[in-house]
Each structure stands twice: as C-alpha cells, then as structure tokens.
Amino acid sequence: MTSPASAPHHITRRITTLSVAVAIVLIVLKSFALGASGSVSIMASLTDSALDLIASLATFFAVRWAAADPDAEHRYGHGKAEGLASLVQSGIVLASAFFIGFEAIKRMIRPEQVTGGMWAIGVMAVSMAVTGWLIWQQGRAIKQTGSLAVEGDRAHYAADLAANFVVLIGVGSGALLNAPGLDALAGLVVAIWLAWGAIGLLRKSADHLMDGVAPAEERNTVVALVLEDDRISNVHQLRTRKAGQVLMVQMHVDLDGRLSLKDAHDIVAAAERRVMAAFPRVDIIIHADPALNSLSGDADMAAPEPAADATSDLITDAEASAKGPWG
After folding, report:
1. Chain centroid to CA 166
2. N or C: less crowded end of the chain, CB within 10 Å?
3. pTM
4. Each residue of 99-113: pLDDT tens digit?
C-alpha cells in the first residue's frame, strides 16, 4: 500500500510517464501532417512537440530524482530537481519560440502554398483532443501533489493546446482560402505565445530555486496549527521555502520560561505533529524561546528581544511578488 508521504511521488511518476507517451504520439501525427501539407504552422507545432518530448523526459527523470531520500551530500533531499527541470523546460520552450518565429517571418516574406490541408486539419484536431486529455490528467495530479515539475509540463501542453488551435486556423486558411500568408502568421502567433509562457515559467522556476517563500495560505495554516495550543503565546522568525513537493519550515515560538525542558519539548513536538498531519511532505524545525512576560527578575537571565506579532512574518503573496529582481 502506498503511504501518504510516498503517494505524491507515485502520482508524479505515473503522470510523467503518460506525458512522454503523449509527446511521442503527437510527434508521429504531426510528422505525417507536415509531410502531407508542408505547412509552416504544422512545422512550428511539430518542433514544439519534439521539444516537449525532451522537456517531458527531463521531467520524467527529475521527479524520480526529487523523490530520492536525503543522503550525506544532500541532507535536505533532492526536491530542487523539480525546479531545475522546470527551468530547463522554460529554456527549451524559449529557444523553440525564437526558431519558430524566424521560420514564420521567412515564410511571410516568401509564402509557400499549403497542400494536403484536410489531412493536416484532421491531424491537428486529433492532437488537440489528445493534448486536452493530458492537461486534464496533469491538472488532477497537480491538485494532489503540488509538483512544480508537473506544473511546468502542464504549462507546456496548455500553451500547445492554444497554439494548436491557432495552427488549425492557419492551415485551414492556407489550404481552403488559398492564403498561405495566414499560415505563416499563425506560426508567428504560436512563437509569441510560447515565448510568453516560457518567461512566466522561468520566473517561477527561478523563484523556487532561490528559496522563495511558500504560498501565503500554507504559511498561515502552519502558524494557525502551531498556535492551537494556548501555551504557545507567539510565533516569530518564521521561514518557509519549498524543495519540490516538500515544505520546509523553521520558526521560533514563545513559551512560559518557567516550564521544564521536558514540558517545553513536549509542547513543541506536539505542534510539529499537528503540522505534519496537515502537510505529510513537510520538514519542520521549531525553536522554543522564553516569553518576555514570564521571565523572573533574575539579573543573570538575559531578556530576549521583544517578540514580533504572530502574523508579522506572514507577508501576503502580493507583497512577496513585489520584491526581488522579478518585481
């Protein structure tokens, strides 16, 4: 039986295998359509599918690497492999966008007649159906795992679905309306769409690799769970980040300074268990501090700095996105 902690990795393995299989099917279909039509927009879509296969293979191996247990050289595990795979995906898509855009502009200057349009239209319709089904499956996997690598792969195919629709318009215009320039224009639209999606994915991947904070909803949930125990009076110095599907949390909590070491330990351990019950893939460390109002008048006991409010570390997603080089 799959344990709650390992279930996300089982799901990501399955969906990445499916993604590779779909990419291969799409390459075969579009190769046939390109041979039948000579359409530049079909060529653009075929190029994108070939790069999708490379990106899907990168994701295929990345999620397996990310699932590996921590070792002596990687004490925090290998979760960042998902962010790395997503970064590779964005670079591949951006490169394909430049290539497709160049070819489309060249065909706009020197249009070429589209042939075999009905074959190409049929192939693109089938490709859209297969792609749409994969996106639906990936969406379900993301809801269950929160995998950045799968999300990057899904962004790929979501852009492909819209791009394929544009290609369908371009092929139809070139074959049925005898307007090959529209086919080249459709290829250029695909290139712009891909570049836009790649830049967004690049930003998200870079934020993950540079230890951006976890989403505000997750941070607030963690703090609320910790503060369920009335003996914990405050949470401060909260730090969060994501390593693949693993949520990393560090914080300080204020306890009555008169508690024994064992009692303080038990309170902190119980708080950690509450968080782990809500987030099966979490690595949490809680440090206990004596609350300022519980200190005695002993001159040898150094008072800590005044604790911040429990929510002072919980910046919103909007505030977080406004900071840093991407703001």
Report:
1. 25
2. N
3. 0.56
4. 777 777 876 777 655
